[in-house]
Amino acid sequence: MGNILDKESYFLEKVSLTQKTDIKILLVDDREDNLMSIEAILENENYIFRKASSGKEALKILLKELDFSLILMDVEMPGLNGFETATMIYERDKLRHIPIIFITAHDSNIENVYRGYKMGAVDYISKPIDKELLKARVSVFIELYNKNIQLKAQEQKLILINNELEQKVRERTDQLTKKNLELESKNLELERINNDLDNFIYTASHDLKAPMANLEALVNVLNTKLTGKLKDKEQTLFNMIGMSIDKFNDTIRDLTRITMVQKELEDHKEPINFQEMVADIKIDIAHLVKESGVTFFEYYDVEHIVYAKKNLRSILHNLITNAIKYRSPERKAEVKIQTYRRHQATVLSVSDNGLGLSEEHQAKMFTMFKRFHSHVEGSGIGLYIIKRIVENNGGKIEMESEKDKGTTFKVVFGLQMPSDKNIQSEQHKQ
User: Fold this and answer.
1) 185 inside domain
2) pLDDT tens across 106-148, in order?
3) Please, what's the b/e burial string for 155-170 (b: 16 or more CB within 10 A of its CB; e: otherwise)?
4) Is 274 found in the same domain as 203?
5) Which of 68, 159, 372, 404 sits in a 20 to 30 Å window from 239, CA-based?
6) How far is CA 51 from CA 13, 371, 403, in A?
7) How far apart (Å, rounded) are the C-alpha atoms in residues 101 and 141?
8) Domain presence at residue 333
């Protein structure tokens, strides 16, 4: 903005100088005594006078000098009269801004007055000239001239400021365009890297399946041949090999599942009943439900959602089993499942009263292979997978947790039309 302020100061200075400069007035009359008389009346006002004894001479002066503030011109002159001279003056665009006051002895002639105004005159003064009236009329038009100069200066200032702002807007637009192009390039690069990573994981997990299957088969053959022949310590080590193979296979399946999340984005979507799917999942994990003695509390303000069934099942299964697995030994396990609307989106909330997490651990909760409770079986990949599922479908997942009090996961699904008449606000459910 420095340039704008500099230009503004320049124009304010210019206006100030214009107001201090002596005003130029052109006096036009064929009689020398009339010219001297007018000059004598106005001489104390510090005006600069140029005098012409005819319309023709006035035109010659105006061809060379354009900076007159006012013209005082007699109407009755030989050759070109005042009206004719005024007409020729106003034919030039550069002279049309100069006001003309006609001096006439024929103020009673309405036709002449009308003709004078038609030629562009701004006022009439009748002979004999009233000194105070002449001073007052001239003063008014000089003041108007100064105001006009100020307005033009302000207009030029605003034009320059506007041009400066437009230039800055263009520069900022160019910068934003450049940044957008850079971001697009970065996004394409990240997308390529993600695709390469997915392809690598998929290829690696696929290539590991065959040797792991062979290893598992060999261990099973050895187990058959060595049954009853191993000591307890050796049998324990042998069992540990089998458990390691099972964990390795689980990890391979999880890695394959990660790469399939993006590919399943276009999976068939259908209306799904939340309560029915939760009931089905509870049957699948019946042993875990029985072992934990967990109590469920379910509230479904939104009963249905249109979603890929396999993906929604993955989300619910992971959140519910985690809520049970990470229960606190200090209290009876409770899991609350509810759905409601937040603005135009459907929200699934799964809360527990389990172990909870510290703020430090919460920030890393959705990181691949990240686990914070080693006493619970798991690969540390489940939350990472459901986060990708949710975000790939235009939603987001939120988490609130407090150590030793419990955790709440909220899945905000992509915008969908309400499917239930009984919709309550999120605030009501808190």
Assistant:
1) no
2) 554 556 666 666 665 677 888 888 888 888 888 888 888 788 8
3) eebeebbeeeeeeeee
4) no
5) 372
6) 31, 101, 98
7) 9
8) yes
User: Does residue 214 sit in the same domain as residue 288?
Assistant: no
- Structural domain containing residue 35: 2-161
Q: Which pLDDT value is given to residue 17?
A: 42
- Domain identity same for 41 and 94: yes
Q: Is there a single domain that holds both residue 157 and residue 258?
A: no
Q: Record the pTM.
A: 0.46
Q: What would the mean pLDDT of 192-212 be, rounded to a whole number?
A: 71
Segment 145-163, tens digit of pLDDT:
788 878 888 888 899 999 9
64 and 210 both lie in a single domain: no
What are the CA-CA distances from residue 170 to residues 157, 165, 175, 345 (Å)?
20, 9, 8, 38
What is the 3-state secondary structure of 59-70? HHHHHHCCCCCE
